[in-house]
Write a structure and sequence with these properties.
Helix content: 10-25%
Radius of gyration: 30 Å
Largest sheet: 5 strands, mixed
Shape: elongated
Strand content: 25-35%
Distance between the termini: 44 Å
Oligomer: single chain
Length: 220
């Protein structure tokens, strides 16, 4: 029975070819490995370049809905105001009513209020400070606790991921995608956090409100 099977296999070989004992299994394994590697690398992409104008720890904050601001008046006839910017981006202040705060730098909004109170107060000087500036971002992919989180600005990508429980056992520290809407266009960059885990100094990347952090799956 074994001899007949061997003759059958020999008949199926290409004319003029012969394999030493064990040669064909080794070649089959090599072919299978190459196919697997090709499939794995097919999903690999070159790192995406950094996003333009990245925010830093000293980047002037632009007010956004949900921020809590304090307006301190030099004129003592009006008490100081602590208000949360509404979803429509506005706050309501004494004597001038509703004003739009969202999208403006703190100093620019302060100058706007000074001009608005001109002629309405004996001393129209005001001081605007940001009491609380939360940013809502999404950490997705292979995080320990993926989902929507709220952080205080300024916060780095690494800090945001740690707030989501860190990278899971199947996540990749070297293949993290940061997606941000810039001028109405969705842009993405690739971030490698592995050097920082190993103690190598790197420049941190800071998040903005509305960012999406996607942690890719580790290939190994």
């Amino acid at each position: 029975m074994t001899q007949n099977s061997r003759h059958t296999w020999d008949d199926r070989q290409w004319p003029g070819t012969s394999y030493p004992t064990g040669e064909f299994p080794r070649r089959s394994f090599l072919i299978a490995f190459l196919v697997f590697a090709a499939l794995m690398c097919g999903g690999c992409q070159s790192p995406l370049p950094p996003l333009p104008n990245p925010p830093g720890p000293k980047t002037p904050v632009r007010l956004s809905p949900g921020d809590v601001i304090k307006v301190a008046y030099a004129d003592e006839t009006i008490p100081d105001q602590i208000q949360k910017i509404r979803r429509d981006g506005k706050v309501s202040l004494p004597l001038i009513g509703e004003v739009t705060a969202a999208g403006k730098r703190v100093i620019d909004f302060q100058h706007q209020l000074v001009n608005s109170y001109d002629g309405k107060l004996d001393d129209n000087e005001v001081l605007v400070t940001l009491e609380s500036g939360p940013a809502t971002i999404i950490v997705a992919g292979f995080a320990t606790y993926p989902g929507k989180i709220t952080v205080d600005r300024p916060t780095t990508v690494y800090q945001a991921i740690m707030q989501a429980g860190g990278v899971s056992d199947y996540g990749s520290l070297s293949n993290i995608h940061l997606t941000r809407i810039i001028n109405g266009v969705q842009r993405t960059e690739t971030i490698n956090l592995r050097p920082s885990i190993r103690g190598t100094p790197i420049y941190p990347e800071y998040v903005q409100d509305g960012d999406v952090i996607y942690i890719s799956r580790s290939l190994f």
